[in-house]
Amino acid sequence: MAYDRNNVFARILRGEIPCNKVYEDTHVLAFRDINPQAPTHILVVPKGEYVSLDDFSANASDAEMASLVRALGHVARAEGVVESGYRILANTGAAAHQEVPHFHIHLFGGRDLGGMLPRR
Ligand code: 5GP
Predict the structure, then answer these.
(1) CATH of domain 8-109
(2) 119: Cβ below 6 Å to ligand 1?
(3) Which of 52, 77, 110, 120 counts the most CB atoms within 10 A of its CB?
(4) pLDDT in tens, 65-112
(5) Cα gap 114→46, rounded to integer Å
(6) Which atom of ligand 1 is found nearest the CA of 31?
(7) What are the backbone angles phi and psi of residue 42, rounded to the nearest 5°?
């Protein structure tokens, strides 16, 4: 899938849409989800133009990958959810219902998060 430069996270990264920023470095921006599903619900987003984890894992530099993982740990510690526990999630493609076609990792915490997937 080609990268759509008008997706909502691209617009946030360009400063065209505001966000509630919690962390930023050279390669990563993290901000609060607009429709939080837990007391802590943060989106950790690479600044590069990657559609999904598939695209990022194949094409991002080692520095971009390292920054993303470091940012996840930093945000979790800053939000105070390490001791109670937290979850990260990256919806990838149609079966996972990925809505925004710019790679992002959700970080959830602040409550009991239940089982990993709904039982069917
Ligand atoms: P996905 O289903 O792609 O993994 O999740 C996309 C997430 O982006 C959703 O949790 C949704 O609430 C969030 N989101 C969509 N538009 C915006 C926005 O304009 N600002 C912020 N902060 N979050 C957004």
Answers:
(1) 3.30.428.10
(2) no
(3) 52
(4) 999 999 999 999 999 999 999 999 999 999 999 999 999 999 999 999
(5) 28
(6) 22
(7) -120, 145
